[in-house]
Amino acid sequence: MLSAVEKGLMLPLMEAFYTVQGEGFHTGTPSYFIRIGGCDVGCHWCDVKESWNPKIHPATDTYEIVNEALKYSKTIVVTGGEPLTWDMTVLTHALKEKDARIHIETSGAYPLTGVWDWICLSPKKNKLPVPEIYPKADELKVIVFNQHDFVFAEEQARHVRPGCQLFLQPEWSRREKMMPAIVDYVMKNPKWRISLQTHKYLNIP
User: Fold this and answer.
1) Phi and psi at residue 119, to the nearest 5°
2) Distance between CA 144 and CA 146 in Å, rounded?
3) pLDDT tens across 16-39, in order?
4) What is the predicted pLDDT for the residue at 44?
5) Which domains does the chain have, with CATH numbers?
6) Distance of CA 48 to the CA centre of its chain
7) Given CB 3.0 to 4.6 Å as the disulfide criterion, which of 4, 84, 182, 198 pairs with 10?
């Protein structure tokens, strides 16, 4: 028999907070973030490695998560960890019943569950997205740690649908080194835009 977590009735909640979206297409939008624990993608530069182990984050009733979120905003961002490690059906249907607009930030390493208004796909080299998520992505956000990431970004961009928004974002610890190369690349390849982690500059969550 499936557990409550496996059914999506409970989720390993790392943290939840109301802030301003700092990255990508919706930068500057007040949003409520739901950060779900659990990720085995294993990016060495990940800035939330404490999210990786779901066992250290309490299994929380999904409807409690929804009710708390809606006290703050109708724009909800589900992130992780890797949220698609878990079944997002219950969470997203409960939010949609309350007319919330729901965004997800995912590596795409697991099959898509749930209903979404905006899918930000941020693929990682060490565990590539499942093929079926590419045509559903509204936004492709590639983290740039080194020069090869430009090659990876173009490889990934070939899989998404026309109209998908394309972003290059410097990995935070390498931003000063990589930003000149990103600016130069975007100016030569204007289908791409630059995403910055503006929340870190603003010193907000």
Assistant:
1) -115, 115
2) 6
3) 999 999 999 999 999 999 999 999
4) 87
5) 4-202 (3.20.20.70)
6) 12
7) 4
Q: Could you give the CA distance from residue 47 to residue 153 in angstroms, rounded to a whole number?
A: 20
In this prediction, residue 79 carries a pLDDT of 98
In sequence order, what are the beta bridge partners of 161?
Answer: none
The vertex-34 CA angle with 142 and 113, nearest 5°, equals 70
Task: Give, as one character, the DSSP assignment of residue 86.
Answer: S
Do 205 and 17 form a contact (C-beta atoms < 8 A)?
Answer: yes
**Cβ pair 91, 11 in contact under 8 A:** yes
Question: What pTM, to 2 d.p., does this model score?
Answer: 0.96
Write the DSSP symbol of residue 127: B
**3-state per-residue secondary structure call for 150-175:** HHHHHHHHCCCCCCCEEEEEECHHHH
Q: Are strands 10-20 and 59-61 parallel, antiparallel or unpaired?
A: antiparallel
Residue 5 in this model has a pLDDT that exceeds 60? yes
Q: Both ends of the chain: CA-CA distance in Å?
A: 38
pLDDT digit string, tens, across residues 52-106: 999 999 999 999 999 999 999 999 999 999 999 999 999 999 999 999 999 999 9
